[in-house]
Amino acid sequence: MAHVYAVALEKGGVGKTSIAVNLAAGYAHVGMRTLLIDLDAQRHASRWLGIDTEAITLDHSFAGVALGRRTIPQCVIETVEGVDVIPAHKDMVALPELLGKEIGAGIYVLRDALAQATQTGAAYDIVILDLAPARGPVLATALASATRCIAPVQAVDLVLQSLRDMVETVSRAQAFNPTLRGLSVLRNNYAPRASLDRIYDEGLAKSYGPMLLQTIIPSRAQIRLASGAQQSVFAYRGPDDIAVRELFLTLVEELLDLDGVTR
Ligand SMILES: Nc1ncnc2c1ncn2[C@@H]1O[C@H](COP(=O)(O)OP(=O)(O)O)[C@@H](O)[C@H]1O
Ligand SMILES: [Mg+2]
Q1: pLDDT of residue 9
Q2: Which residues line ligand 1 (CB under 6 A)?
Q3: pTM (two decimals)
């Protein structure tokens, strides 16, 4: 049974895609079979790993799987970083509406597709879902198949409100997905020495203590530069590359520990 991590928060610009892409590359780097699924019509994760999304039809994107028209192996694209990707398509902006209409698919469509892939020999150790900053049927589908939700947060008040909503959304999703272990809060884009971040951090620890991941991803140019170069931090050579790679490997290990994976 794969670990399925949904990287989600109903707020843009907090680093969901940065975490999803680099975490996926990190798992591939340590030799785990990793699938990254781009559920955001903006297609940032797909492009980040070098996929020409204009060359992909809607049915060969995540929409094909979500609407029950394609299997996972039919949509997978292998990337040079060792991560398999199911890309997004720009017309996926209409996916929430389509999912609402085509009830045949149901919210377990992704979970069932992943189970089917495993049975037919296309098993993954880790599946990472990169979501758009929105709630609705796409998030529900993701949380119905997830084993853990990872919410990246930054030291901004608006993010706290989104986090409160996310806690609620995840606990509701646990009612129809017993394999969803819970929500992990990841502090990203942090400047730990800034006094504002420190005050904010104390508040986070008070309200979300047990959910907080120990690993903190600070603000690093390397992450932005790697994105611009369409590479993960594991492939991109830059000024800070070794330190940033180490950070993501620490995060990889922390999540594996949390889920009791022994390697
Ligand atoms: N730890 C970080 N250090 C530096 N820049 C970051 C970091 N995390 C994210 N960013 C930058 O912030 C912007 C938004 O990140 P992104 O991952 O696209 O967020 P989201 O997917 O939540 O909208 C991007 O330009 C990205 O390069
Ligand atoms: Mg994103």
Answers
A1: 96
A2: 12-18, 44, 188-189, 217, 219-220, 223-224, 227
A3: 0.97
